[in-house]
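Marked as duplicate of an earlier ticket. Keeping the data here for the record.
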Amino acid sequence: MVVVILAGGLGTRLSEETAVRPKPMVEVGGRPLLWHIMKLYAHHGHTSFVLCLGYRAEVVKRHFLERYHLTRDLTLTLTDGRVRIHSGGEGEDWTVTLLDTGAETQTGGRLLRARPFTGGGTFLLTYGDGVSDVDIAALVAFHRTHGRLATLTAVRPPSRYGELELDGDRVSCFTEKPAAAGGWINGGFFVLEPEVFDYLSGDDTVFETGPLARLALDGQLMAYRHHGFWQCMDTLRDVNTLNQLWASGRPPWKVWD
Protein backbone atom coordinates (compact mmCIF):
# COMPACT_ATOMS: atom_id res chain seq x y z
CA MET A 1 0.00 0.00 0.00
CA VAL A 2 1.00 3.60 -0.48
CA VAL A 3 2.03 5.36 2.74
CA VAL A 4 1.12 9.05 3.00
CA ILE A 5 3.07 11.00 5.61
CA LEU A 6 1.98 14.48 6.71
CA ALA A 7 5.27 16.36 6.97
CA GLY A 8 4.48 20.01 6.33
CA GLY A 9 3.64 21.64 9.65
CA LEU A 10 5.51 24.49 11.31
CA GLY A 11 6.48 22.70 14.51
CA THR A 12 6.20 25.90 16.55
CA ARG A 13 6.59 24.13 19.91
CA LEU A 14 9.99 22.89 18.78
CA SER A 15 11.34 26.21 17.53
CA GLU A 16 14.84 25.42 18.82
CA GLU A 17 15.08 22.82 16.05
CA THR A 18 12.55 23.91 13.45
CA ALA A 19 13.80 27.39 12.69
CA VAL A 20 15.90 25.93 9.88
CA ARG A 21 14.16 22.62 9.08
CA PRO A 22 10.73 21.00 9.32
CA LYS A 23 10.01 18.89 12.37
CA PRO A 24 10.20 15.51 10.57
CA MET A 25 13.82 16.34 9.67
CA VAL A 26 14.92 16.78 13.29
CA GLU A 27 17.46 14.04 13.90
CA VAL A 28 17.26 11.09 16.26
CA GLY A 29 20.40 9.01 16.33
CA GLY A 30 21.87 10.97 13.44
CA ARG A 31 18.89 10.31 11.15
CA PRO A 32 15.76 12.39 10.52
CA LEU A 33 12.74 11.25 12.49
CA LEU A 34 11.07 10.85 9.10
CA TRP A 35 13.53 8.06 8.25
CA HIS A 36 12.63 6.17 11.44
CA ILE A 37 8.92 6.32 10.53
CA MET A 38 9.57 5.15 6.99
CA LYS A 39 11.73 2.28 8.26
CA LEU A 40 8.80 1.00 10.34
CA TYR A 41 6.53 0.85 7.30
CA ALA A 42 9.25 -0.64 5.10
CA HIS A 43 9.81 -3.37 7.70
CA HIS A 44 6.19 -4.41 7.10
CA GLY A 45 6.58 -4.34 3.32
CA HIS A 46 5.22 -0.88 2.52
CA THR A 47 7.91 0.99 0.59
CA SER A 48 5.98 3.45 -1.59
CA PHE A 49 5.77 6.81 0.17
CA VAL A 50 4.07 10.14 -0.50
CA LEU A 51 5.50 12.91 1.66
CA CYS A 52 3.13 15.87 2.02
CA LEU A 53 5.53 18.76 2.47
CA GLY A 54 4.95 22.40 3.34
CA TYR A 55 7.17 24.40 5.68
CA ARG A 56 10.79 24.26 4.45
CA ALA A 57 9.85 21.67 1.83
CA GLU A 58 13.17 22.24 0.12
CA VAL A 59 15.01 20.77 3.11
CA VAL A 60 13.27 17.41 2.68
CA LYS A 61 13.70 17.42 -1.09
CA ARG A 62 17.38 18.27 -0.79
CA HIS A 63 17.89 15.49 1.75
CA PHE A 64 16.58 12.77 -0.54
CA LEU A 65 18.20 14.14 -3.69
CA GLU A 66 21.59 14.70 -2.11
CA ARG A 67 21.62 11.47 -0.13
CA TYR A 68 21.36 9.44 -3.32
CA HIS A 69 24.33 11.19 -4.90
CA LEU A 70 26.48 11.67 -1.81
CA THR A 71 26.51 7.96 -0.99
CA ARG A 72 27.67 6.91 -4.46
CA ASP A 73 30.75 7.20 -6.65
CA LEU A 74 30.26 9.76 -9.42
CA THR A 75 31.88 10.96 -12.59
CA LEU A 76 31.00 14.57 -13.31
CA THR A 77 31.59 16.20 -16.70
CA LEU A 78 32.20 19.84 -15.85
CA THR A 79 31.50 21.24 -19.32
CA ASP A 80 27.83 20.28 -19.33
CA GLY A 81 27.13 19.00 -15.81
CA ARG A 82 26.49 15.41 -16.83
CA VAL A 83 26.67 12.97 -13.94
CA ARG A 84 27.49 9.30 -14.31
CA ILE A 85 26.49 7.14 -11.34
CA HIS A 86 28.76 4.21 -10.55
CA SER A 87 28.01 1.18 -8.42
CA GLY A 88 28.22 1.40 -4.68
CA GLY A 89 26.55 3.62 -2.19
CA GLU A 90 23.77 2.89 0.22
CA GLY A 91 20.08 3.46 0.27
CA GLU A 92 16.75 1.82 0.93
CA ASP A 93 14.68 0.27 -1.84
CA TRP A 94 11.92 2.86 -1.53
CA THR A 95 9.89 4.97 -3.93
CA VAL A 96 9.39 8.45 -2.51
CA THR A 97 7.06 11.09 -3.94
CA LEU A 98 7.96 14.55 -2.62
CA LEU A 99 4.78 16.60 -2.82
CA ASP A 100 4.81 20.30 -1.92
CA THR A 101 1.31 20.83 -0.53
CA GLY A 102 1.79 24.47 0.50
CA ALA A 103 3.07 26.14 3.63
CA GLU A 104 -0.38 27.16 4.94
CA THR A 105 -2.37 24.07 4.00
CA GLN A 106 -4.07 22.17 6.82
CA THR A 107 -3.72 18.43 7.39
CA GLY A 108 -6.90 17.48 5.53
CA GLY A 109 -5.92 19.73 2.65
CA ARG A 110 -2.50 18.10 2.43
CA LEU A 111 -4.12 14.67 2.32
CA LEU A 112 -6.54 15.80 -0.39
CA ARG A 113 -3.64 17.02 -2.53
CA ALA A 114 -2.04 13.58 -2.20
CA ARG A 115 -5.10 11.84 -3.63
CA PRO A 116 -3.70 11.35 -7.18
CA PHE A 117 -0.70 9.50 -5.74
CA THR A 118 -2.47 7.03 -3.43
CA GLY A 119 -3.18 4.39 -6.06
CA GLY A 120 -6.97 4.46 -5.87
CA GLY A 121 -7.30 1.80 -3.19
CA THR A 122 -6.75 1.30 0.52
CA PHE A 123 -3.79 3.35 1.73
CA LEU A 124 -1.91 4.21 4.91
CA LEU A 125 -1.52 7.60 6.57
CA THR A 126 0.50 8.91 9.47
CA TYR A 127 2.15 12.02 10.87
CA GLY A 128 5.80 12.90 10.45
CA ASP A 129 6.43 13.57 14.13
CA GLY A 130 5.84 10.33 16.00
CA VAL A 131 7.42 6.89 16.27
CA SER A 132 5.96 3.62 17.50
CA ASP A 133 6.43 -0.14 17.44
CA VAL A 134 2.86 -0.60 16.20
CA ASP A 135 2.40 -3.78 14.17
CA ILE A 136 1.35 -2.38 10.79
CA ALA A 137 0.40 -5.82 9.49
CA ALA A 138 -1.93 -6.40 12.45
CA LEU A 139 -3.34 -2.89 12.04
CA VAL A 140 -4.19 -3.54 8.38
CA ALA A 141 -5.66 -6.94 9.24
CA PHE A 142 -7.89 -5.31 11.87
CA HIS A 143 -9.04 -2.75 9.31
CA ARG A 144 -9.98 -5.52 6.89
CA THR A 145 -12.19 -7.23 9.49
CA HIS A 146 -14.64 -4.38 10.15
CA GLY A 147 -15.32 -3.03 6.66
CA ARG A 148 -15.44 0.64 7.67
CA LEU A 149 -13.76 3.49 5.82
CA ALA A 150 -11.15 4.45 8.39
CA THR A 151 -9.06 3.01 11.19
CA LEU A 152 -6.87 5.04 13.51
CA THR A 153 -4.38 3.75 16.03
CA ALA A 154 -5.43 4.57 19.59
CA VAL A 155 -2.62 4.96 22.11
CA ARG A 156 -2.26 5.83 25.78
CA PRO A 157 0.90 7.93 26.06
CA PRO A 158 2.74 8.27 29.35
CA SER A 159 2.03 11.35 31.40
CA ARG A 160 4.81 13.94 31.51
CA TYR A 161 4.59 13.94 35.28
CA GLY A 162 4.20 11.41 38.04
CA GLU A 163 0.88 11.17 39.84
CA LEU A 164 0.16 11.22 43.56
CA GLU A 165 -2.79 9.76 45.41
CA LEU A 166 -3.31 11.54 48.71
CA ASP A 167 -5.00 10.38 51.88
CA GLY A 168 -5.26 13.70 53.68
CA ASP A 169 -1.65 14.89 53.77
CA ARG A 170 -0.25 11.40 53.38
CA VAL A 171 0.89 10.15 49.99
CA SER A 172 -0.89 6.80 49.66
CA CYS A 173 0.37 6.05 46.16
CA PHE A 174 3.08 7.43 43.88
CA THR A 175 3.23 6.50 40.20
CA GLU A 176 6.02 7.74 37.96
CA LYS A 177 4.75 8.73 34.49
CA PRO A 178 1.60 6.60 34.38
CA ALA A 179 -0.60 6.14 31.33
CA ALA A 180 -2.55 9.26 30.44
CA ALA A 181 -5.44 9.69 32.83
CA GLY A 182 -7.65 10.86 29.97
CA GLY A 183 -7.52 7.46 28.29
CA TRP A 184 -6.95 6.81 24.61
CA ILE A 185 -5.82 9.43 22.09
CA ASN A 186 -5.32 9.52 18.33
CA GLY A 187 -1.82 8.19 17.70
CA GLY A 188 -1.99 8.42 13.91
CA PHE A 189 -1.04 5.31 11.89
CA PHE A 190 -4.27 5.25 9.92
CA VAL A 191 -5.62 2.80 7.37
CA LEU A 192 -8.02 4.56 4.99
CA GLU A 193 -10.30 3.70 2.11
CA PRO A 194 -10.44 6.08 -0.88
CA GLU A 195 -13.99 7.14 0.04
CA VAL A 196 -12.44 9.14 2.90
CA PHE A 197 -11.51 11.77 0.32
CA ASP A 198 -15.24 12.58 0.05
CA TYR A 199 -14.99 13.98 3.58
CA LEU A 200 -12.29 16.49 2.56
CA SER A 201 -13.17 19.81 0.96
CA GLY A 202 -10.03 21.91 0.45
CA ASP A 203 -6.80 23.34 1.81
CA ASP A 204 -8.48 24.66 4.97
CA THR A 205 -9.75 21.21 6.02
CA VAL A 206 -8.34 20.08 9.36
CA PHE A 207 -8.43 16.29 9.16
CA GLU A 208 -8.59 15.77 12.92
CA THR A 209 -11.70 17.88 13.50
CA GLY A 210 -14.27 17.94 10.70
CA PRO A 211 -13.52 14.78 8.67
CA LEU A 212 -12.67 12.44 11.55
CA ALA A 213 -15.63 13.74 13.58
CA ARG A 214 -17.99 13.13 10.65
CA LEU A 215 -16.55 9.69 10.00
CA ALA A 216 -17.19 8.84 13.65
CA LEU A 217 -20.78 10.14 13.48
CA ASP A 218 -21.35 8.06 10.35
CA GLY A 219 -20.05 4.95 12.10
CA GLN A 220 -17.12 4.75 9.70
CA LEU A 221 -14.20 5.28 12.11
CA MET A 222 -12.70 2.41 14.09
CA ALA A 223 -9.85 2.32 16.62
CA TYR A 224 -7.01 -0.19 16.73
CA ARG A 225 -5.75 -0.24 20.32
CA HIS A 226 -1.96 -0.21 20.53
CA HIS A 227 -0.56 -1.12 23.94
CA GLY A 228 3.10 -0.83 23.01
CA PHE A 229 5.50 2.06 22.54
CA TRP A 230 4.41 5.38 21.06
CA GLN A 231 6.08 8.76 21.35
CA CYS A 232 5.44 12.03 19.57
CA MET A 233 8.12 14.69 19.16
CA ASP A 234 6.60 18.03 20.15
CA THR A 235 9.28 19.59 22.37
CA LEU A 236 13.04 19.63 22.86
CA ARG A 237 12.48 17.34 25.82
CA ASP A 238 10.91 14.79 23.45
CA VAL A 239 13.90 15.08 21.10
CA ASN A 240 16.27 14.42 23.98
CA THR A 241 14.19 11.48 25.20
CA LEU A 242 14.19 9.82 21.78
CA ASN A 243 17.92 10.36 21.34
CA GLN A 244 18.59 8.86 24.75
CA LEU A 245 16.51 5.82 23.86
CA TRP A 246 18.38 5.43 20.59
CA ALA A 247 21.74 5.77 22.33
CA SER A 248 20.73 3.02 24.77
CA GLY A 249 21.03 0.53 21.94
CA ARG A 250 17.47 -0.69 22.51
CA PRO A 251 15.13 1.94 21.06
CA PRO A 252 11.66 0.40 21.45
CA TRP A 253 10.42 1.55 18.03
CA LYS A 254 13.32 -0.11 16.15
CA VAL A 255 11.60 -3.27 14.95
CA TRP A 256 13.82 -3.65 11.88
CA ASP A 257 17.23 -5.36 11.76
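See parent ticket for discussion. Helices lie at 15-18, 33-43, 57-70, 107-113, 136-146, 210-217, 236-247.
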